[in-house]
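Researcher: I'd like a candidate sequence for this fold, 436 residues long. If you have to choose between options at a position, lean toward the conservative one.
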């Protein structure tokens, strides 16, 4: 008998029919002899609709009240799910985040989990009940208020519950089959991975892959939780997101799908290709090429709240003794950053600003890069054959990213995917799914 935590996203519980289907899945797991704890998201687009309502009554809704409002979405789905399970003859009990002992800091809308005290969940499990927990929400002990964890926070709820209860696995259900070597909507020949290391998953998530939330993967990595990303709509195996020392059914997990025993499998060099169209580029032209300017500039940008990603500095085309500095940041942060920089133009002494929101970022991720040479050469070769111009390059130990024109991104991703030998033999089945 195992303890299994399951998380169902909004698309999996969008209406009464879906809730019954999920209930059946939970009951099947229970019938197989396992203890089950479920974290559930709000039905369908409920969270978006509630946000919309809030914005209609107030231009800037009070953060405390917004959390009160948004957390109600998960209360609806958790209670309905428990009822559906009852009607199938099984005992189920739903709990809010605070009842479940999901203790967070006090930051409304972006709270961090600081402790999980699942006393009531354990009691319910001991009494033979299936436990349903509202995802995305917590409770702060100092303010004694309800908090939410940020959009997509139910993944984190599930992983945190799995860690606190020492569950055998955290199954994250959505409307896609698992984690693919690329987004199948962009690269039709993308393959579903049997497994991927949490390290690689973090890099992919940080660079545009939307299947799993980065915070949940981080939490899982830190606490040794095995994630199984799978589809609500099929019974097939999904993708295991594993870390050092994790086991499944008593067997140690390794890369590539082989088991520790028969580990003659070659580790794949590249696990996947991520694409990201959500970034913009700002170029500061004609910055005096003297010590301290980069510090000045990025202090201004940081104070504007923007999260800078790639940075490149070149000798300026404007004149000698000057440099051009380009950096990328989320499109949504660009306007504020530009305004902040303009406000300091005289004092920093640059000539002008250029804003470019037609860029795309392509990243190749794989732990095999540590031990193999020529990985970047393959990437640049593929892009050169495609005639795609590279505007910026950045690397980490297990990732290479390039910035290209947004219009070139999809084509570039397909060619690079092929160049690394990642293509499947058939096109991936693409559900209408969003991965939530
Ligand atoms: N319902 C919340 C959201 O839509 C949390 C989640 O779905 O994970 O962001
Ligand atoms: Mg949702």
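Model: Candidate sequence:
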């Amino acid at each position: 008998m195992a303890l299994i935590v399951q998380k169902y996203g909004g698309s999996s519980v969008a209406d009464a029919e879906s809730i019954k289907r999920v209930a059946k899945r939970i009951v099947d797991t229970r019938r197989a002899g396992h203890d089950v704890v479920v974290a559930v998201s709000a039905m369908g687009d409920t969270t978006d609709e509630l946000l919309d309502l809030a914005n209609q009554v107030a231009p800037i809704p009070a953060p405390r009240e917004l959390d009160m409002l948004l957390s109600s979405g998960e209360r609806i789905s958790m209670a309905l799910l428990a009822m559906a399970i009852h009607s199938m003859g099984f005992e189920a009990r739903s709990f809010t985040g605070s009842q479940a002992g999901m203790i967070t800091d006090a930051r409304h809308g972006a709270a961090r989990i600081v402790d999980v005290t699942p006393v009531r969940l354990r009691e319910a499990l001991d009494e033979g009940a299936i436990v349903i927990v509202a995802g995305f929400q917590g409770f702060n002990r100092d303010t004694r208020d309800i908090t939410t964890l940020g959009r997509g926070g139910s993944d984190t709820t599930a992983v945190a519950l799995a860690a606190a209860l020492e569950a055998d696995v955290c199954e994250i259900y959505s409307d896609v089959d698992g984690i693919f070597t690329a987004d199948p909507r962009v690269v039709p020949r993308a393959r579903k991975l049997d497994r991927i290391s949490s390290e690689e998953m973090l890099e992919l998530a940080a660079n545009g892959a939307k299947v799993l939330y980065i915070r949940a993967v981080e939490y899982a990595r830190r606490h040794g939780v095995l994630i199984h990303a799978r589809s609500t709509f099929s019974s097939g195996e999904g993708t295991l997101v594993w870390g050092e020392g994790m086991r499944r059914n008593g067997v140690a997990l390794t890369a590539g799908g082989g088991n520790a025993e028969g580990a003659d499998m070659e580790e794949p060099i590249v696990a996947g290709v991520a694409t990201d169209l959500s970034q913009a580029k700002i170029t500061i032209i004609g910055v005096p090429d003297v010590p301290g300017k980069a510090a000045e500039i990025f202090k201004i940008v940081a104070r504007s709240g923007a999260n800078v990603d790639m940075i490149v500095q070149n000798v300026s085309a404007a004149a000698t003794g000057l440099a051009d500095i380009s950096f990328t940041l989320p499109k949504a942060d660009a306007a504020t950053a530009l305004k902040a920089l303009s406000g300091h133009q005289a004092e920093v002494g640059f000539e002008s600003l250029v804003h470019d929101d037609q860029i795309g970022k392509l990243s190749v991720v794989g732990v095999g890069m540590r031990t193999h040479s020529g990985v970047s050469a393959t990437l640049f070769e593929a892009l050169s054959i495609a005639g795609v111009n590279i505007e910026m390059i950045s690397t980490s130990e297990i990732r290479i990213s390039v910035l290209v024109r947004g219009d070139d991104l999809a084509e570039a991703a397909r060619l690079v995917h092929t160049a690394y030998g990642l293509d499947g033999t058939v096109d991936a089945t693409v559900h209408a799914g969003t991965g939530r």
